[in-house]
Amino acid sequence: FHLICCFIILENIFVLLTIWKTKKFHRPMYYFIGNLALSDLLAGVAYTANLLLSGATTYKLTPAQWFLREGSMFVALSASVFSLLAIAIERYITMLKMKLHNGSNRFRSFLLISACWVISLILGGLPIMGWNCISTLPSCSTVLPLYHKHYILFCTTVFTLLLLSIVILYCRIYSLVRTRSRRLTFRKNISKASRSSEKSLALLKTVIIVLGVFIACWAPLFILLLLDVGCKVKTCDILF
């Protein structure tokens, strides 16, 4: 697991450096991709810290330290999901206009990225701010002992709805691409529009692959957390 985390960290550092050093990538779409890479990078760091502070070390942690350990993972996960949503929205707008956004939209992009991190920090910090089960032990999670089951249900519901929205957006984008392609075949002067369409389609394929991998990797955790919420204490062997 440590090797996997190191690979994730190095891979996303490479993505960030590539975007930073390549001038043609200084566009809103690539800012969102960079934000996704940053959130995945932090997820790798947070999971590495989680591994190092697990086992016998867990019993030496104060509640606040435990919340910081687990909360960092929720912050990184939230930022990843919101980044994917921002990318889907940007792709949808791009396919509607059939052109890449220019610098006039950079402020809006940075505003969305800032909002992504503010919301993620709030969502991940809710337990340390009071939404926990320290005073109501029967409501505690089995997988994440100090987390209230209602908080886990809330987070998994939010993430699931966001991912569902992203899938719907990409279905709509795919429909737009097919419609545009059919229209372009009946035109004579299509070189410029065709190049724009090819660029958008290439980015679309890449992001869909990223989304598919993200869902495949995180779906088992979501299912486990939902089982945790639905099962009474010591009734589901899979949680132990």
TrEMBL record:
The keyword Hydrolase does not apply. Residues 11-240 form the G-protein coupled receptors family 1 profile domain. The chain crosses the membrane at residues 30-53, 73-89, 110-131, 151-173, 202-227. Its main location: membrane. The keyword DNA damage does not apply. Keywords: Cell membrane, Disulfide bond, G-protein coupled receptor, Glycoprotein, Membrane, Receptor, Transducer, Transmembrane, Transmembrane helix. One of its GO terms (molecular function) is sphingosine-1-phosphate receptor activity. Disulfide bonds join C133-C140, C231-C236. It is found in: Cell membrane. It is a multi-pass membrane protein. Belongs to the G-protein coupled receptor 1 family. PANTHER family: G-PROTEIN COUPLED RECEPTOR. This is EDG1.
